Amino acid sequence: MALERTLAILKPDCVRKQLIGEVLRRMEAAGFRICALHMQHLSRARAEGFYAVHRDRPFFGSLVEFMISGPCVPLVLEKENAVEDFRTVIGATDPAEAAPGTIRAAHADNKGENIVHGSDSPANARTEIAYFFGDLSAD
Ligand code: CMP
To answer: Which among 5, 8, 75, 109 would be 20 to 30 A from 38, CA to CA?
Structure first.
């Protein structure tokens, strides 16, 4: 199977809880190679742009407020079957439903503040990687 890339974001709660190292360790232990990583404090426009697909959802406002509440760390991960495998490693959106041993089960507080983002399809991974890292999605 060919190598694949996915976009992850260590969200502001991950940074606030000083879990950057712990979550990166879990990613590397699960076989992902970290290709790019850049801590940044998103502007409202950048957060709204990233989550534009959710613009009409009731949680959009709180999601954007949360994502601009402090710095976050977008990163690009690579391995075979990266998109699907990373979704498995992070667990369900709602930590109450996340499988034991997943990042969200271990560290997330709720559906809104759930430590980490992972692209949900290879097509979205390419779009999301390009959003933060330009042409790295095409390598
Ligand atoms: P993420 O993988 O970053 O993609 C969209 C985000 O919206 C998701 O993680 C959650 O943090 C957030 N989200 C999804 N559903 C809800 C919800 N019902 N209430 C609050 N936030 C949500």
So the answer is: 109
